[in-house]
Amino acid sequence: MPRSIRAVWTPQESPFGGRRSRASYTYDAFVPDSVAAWDVAIPPALAAEIGDADAALRAASADVSLAGMEALSRHLLRAECIASSRIEGLVVSHRRIAEVAFDPTHADETARSVLGNIAAMERAIRIGARGGRLTVGDLVAIHRELLTATRDGAIAGKIRGSQNWIGGRSDGPLDAEFVPPPPELVPELLDDLAQFCSRDDLPTVLQAAIAHAQFETIHPFADGNGRVGRCLIHVVLRRGGHAGRFVPPVSLALAGNAAAYVKGLGDFRRGDSVAWIGQCVAATRLAAVRSRELVELAQATTARWMAETRARRGSALARAIQTLPECPVLDAARLATTMRCDVATAHAALTRLSAAGIVTATTLGRRNRVFVARACIELLNKFERSLLDPAGPRRRNRAPARPPTRPPRAEVSPAESSILRALASASMSLGDLRARCELPSRRLQALLAGLRTRGLVRLVGRARTARWSLTAAGRSVAASS
After folding, report:
1. pLDDT of 91 above 90
2. Which of 419, 418, 415 is CA-nearest to residue 430?
3. Nearest Cα to 124, choosing from 59, 38, 211?
4. In CATH, which superfamily holds the domain spanning 3-292?
């Protein structure tokens, strides 16, 4: 049975904070039950949903009429990684990732973090395709791929040796929303999880849901747990023979309601595994269905371009058009490599596509002249919106709604909450805020940008004297968070 272990936290000596911050206190770390021999009765309705999700995955992967699935598989993988990173506060667009994939030297820290997520997902797919028994070393390898090229490279591939926590204060587990198991129990729990993922007697979609929730409960690394945990979903799906030709963007479907996602993980820890499984299964099915729709739209788009340009089947122009969904940002050299032709032929094809308005010439960085298929980028954007908001855009009222008498309470993530609480005491520079909240600089800036857009924080001053402070709305949220 799950249990709690009471421990004592002794703060490090620091001149900052009040008496409460410097005093020792006790906290309870949660230790989950073993899952290696997990066996819970599944209600008939949920069993039917699992079967539907399984069928949707197999249909999207095996339908030979969707030859474009393999061409778009990398974009589906990127969409999954962009969404997984967004859940952690790392926001980047499809076009930006397409540009840095073309030329990684133009990547900033946020883009490098997402590229690391893509590398980790690719490693996860290879591990799943390998089959056989999953090991703790496989999980460590995924984490190493995730963080090696980022500012957190020093902790890449290292299982934590200290206590971590989610939410609450940045200097200790006081007031934390959740405290994972003590570090000395992590290796044993990871080995138990690896045994569970190696089982062959469970429905794959169900197994992926339980594996992800258990991994997030263990929280075995100092950072990157959410992204590695969502990679684990795809290890299990690929190992079980599902989605052999593509990566269903399950994280994108889960990100459509991040609050429900966090609540579902909490339900699992409280023993309600059925509710969490249902949520994860629904996200998996939706991701598979929308992926097929994306491929069909991409095929319709390229067919229209073929007709508009009167491209002959098999010609260099036709092959260039078929390449665009896979590579929406490219130059003549990249197209020549993909088409296996000379650069002059590729350049001639791009010139015709540019004249037809299918691609647009632009500059990447200072000198690189590239061509962008904006329609392909927009297809990906619409695909993303269809998963983030499955019900579609809401109809607007013709008459403007009356303003509320008080601003609605803003939903903030645990990391955002820690920023608001830190600023509640005094305005701070970016450096002071980074030290107080113990967040990577790039992630902190992304979170601050989001809070600023929502009117919760503001930047006062310029250059070196600039300081962040709370707005009136931000103080209200900080007081209630």
Report:
1. no
2. 419
3. 211
4. Fido-like domain (1.10.3290.10)
